[in-house]
């Protein structure tokens, strides 16, 4: 645990995935004493590949972790779109679709990014695994927290970085339904054996309203598999029933060809299968009193934008900088929101581009999508999307430990 004698205050961060360790990294360097609580028994490894793009790459550079991410970069070389019968519809460079820039942006397995972030803070920050926030009680001088384990502690501030289904958000702001914006799709992700001989590439199969993907990270003998389908209303009846979730996916894809039957069978037996709706989080305010949210808990953009991890890194940097620059947490939270909301909204608005590109729901839209893909080059693009670089980062102090300077505004 950090035993810093002169602290700017104590901060509890809920969530140890991406946003949590990132905000802990910066807060610790600004002189705060930080505790991170995570409901899982340890750091969650594995996971599908994620992108770090635009402004978030600069945040990674300032953290000193960019070389590690570049080393872990999986360098996908080809994205092949397939028709319903498995025939080839188009072949493009992956970044021509996602809007990334070759040689600048990085793509890494989610677990690798989490490991790198954890490694950067674990010696200076207290991590409490296999526990979570049960109740929060704010008072004039801080927040009293009761954990699921029964432990009670007090903190000056609490930050919720606990994802799309944030417990912190539910406790402080109310039920998640009022903030979730359902985008009309459900998905299942899981791993399966790479019996296809795929390497540094992905296959995306489409028929109107349904899609499947097989993603090969480098030369791995395991594939990240993905099944996605349009669903007008969120299937609340399967929310907590894993068996019902798998039945819903299997029924939806029951009549499809290509490798879909093998994928459904693999999903049935996978021990890492995960099901959820495709949703964004839109909140009128990201803070209430001494509690603030960041990452997916505050502004999940959905995987359709490919910007979840990037928004988490940028939001963490900006929130920590605001807390360091303002003595009053109310002013700090207001500055954080004022400076970041436009960037968030611009990235969330990318969802329609991702929606149209990956998951057309009609035959006409699918044909239009394929024609557009055929016009793209198999060479990487030279520029990214404006949404990835729309925020100019303030020059927070870089590379410091032990001494803390206030960021220049």
Strands of the biggest beta sheet: in what spatial order?
5-4-13-14-15-12-16
Structural class designation: alpha/beta
Helix content: 25-40%
Low-confidence stretches: 1-6, 398-409
The protein's oligomeric status is single chain
Mean pLDDT: 88
Number of strands: 18
The number of helical elements comes to 13
> How would a crystallographer describe the biggest sheet?
7 strands, mixed
Instruction: Tell me the overall shape.
Output: globular
* CA gyration radius, whole angstroms: 21 Å
Give the N-to-C terminal Cα separation: 31 Å
Percent strand equals 25-35%
Description:
By secondary structure, the protein is an alpha/beta fold. The chain has helices at 19-29, 55-63, 66-72, 94-98, 110-121, 167-173, 242-252, 260-269, 296-299, 308-325, 329-348, 351-358, 363-374, and strands at 10-14, 33-38, 49-52, 78-82, 88-92, 106-109, 126-129, 133-139, 142-147, 152-155, 157-160, 180-193, 201-207, 210-216, 222-230, 274-281, 287-288, 291-293. The strands form 4 sheets. The chain has a 7-stranded mixed beta sheet with strand order 5-4-13-14-15-12-16, sandwiched between helices. A 6-stranded mixed beta sheet has the order 7-2-1-11-18-17, sandwiched between helices. A 3-stranded antiparallel beta sheet has the order 8-9-10. Helix 1 (19-29) packs parallel to helix 5, helix 1 (19-29) packs parallel to helix 10 (308-325) and helix 2 packs across helix 10. The chain contains 13 helices and 18 strands.
């Amino acid at each position: 645990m950090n035993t810093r004698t002169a602290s700017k205050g104590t901060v509890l961060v809920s969530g140890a995935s991406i946003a949590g360790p990132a905000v802990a990294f910066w807060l610790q360097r600004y002189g705060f004493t930080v505790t991170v609580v995570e409901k899982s028994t340890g750091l969650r490894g594995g996971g599908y590949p994620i992108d770090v793009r635009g402004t978030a790459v600069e945040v990674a550079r300032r953290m000193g972790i960019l070389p590690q991410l570049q080393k872990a970069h999986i360098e996908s070389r080809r994205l092949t779109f397939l028709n319903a019968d498995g025939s080839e519809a188009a072949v493009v460079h992956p970044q021509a679709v996602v809007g990334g820039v070759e040689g600048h942006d990085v793509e890494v397995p989610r677990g690798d990014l989490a490991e790198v972030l954890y490694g950067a803070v674990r010696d200076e920050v207290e991590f409490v695994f296999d526990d979570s926030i049960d109740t929060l009680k704010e008072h004039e001088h801080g927040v009293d927290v009761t954990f699921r384990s029964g432990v009670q502690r007090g903190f000056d501030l609490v930050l919720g970085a606990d994802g799309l289904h944030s417990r912190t958000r539910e406790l402080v702001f109310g039920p998640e339904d009022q903030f979730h914006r359902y985008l009309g799709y459900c998905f299942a992700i899981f791993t399966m054996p790479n019996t296809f001989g795929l390497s540094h590439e992905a296959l995306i199969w489409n028929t109107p309203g349904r899609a499947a993907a097989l993603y090969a990270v480098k030369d791995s003998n395991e594939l990240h598999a993905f099944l996605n389908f349009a669903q007008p209303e969120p299937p609340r009846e399967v929310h907590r029933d894993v068996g019902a979730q798998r039945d819903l996916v299997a029924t939806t894809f029951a009549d499809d060809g290509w490798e879909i039957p093998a994928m459904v069978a693999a999903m049935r037996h996978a021990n890492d299968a995960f099901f959820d709706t495709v949703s964004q989080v839109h909140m009128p305010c990201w803070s209430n009193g001494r509690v603030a949210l960041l990452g997916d808990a505050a502004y999940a953009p959905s995987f359709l934008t490919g910007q979840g991890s990037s928004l988490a890194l940028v939001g963490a940097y900006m929130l920590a900088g605001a807390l360091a620059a303002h003595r009053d947490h109310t002013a700090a939270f207001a500055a954080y929101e004022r400076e970041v909301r436009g960037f968030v909204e611009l990235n969330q608005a990318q969802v329609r581009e991702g929606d149209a590109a990956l998951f057309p729901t009609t035959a006409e839209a699918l044909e239009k999508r394929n024609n557009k893909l055929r016009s793209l080059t198999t060479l990487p693009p030279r520029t990214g999307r404006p949404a990835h670089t729309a925020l100019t980062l303030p020059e927070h102090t870089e590379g410091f430990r032990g001494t803390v300077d206030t960021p220049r505004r």
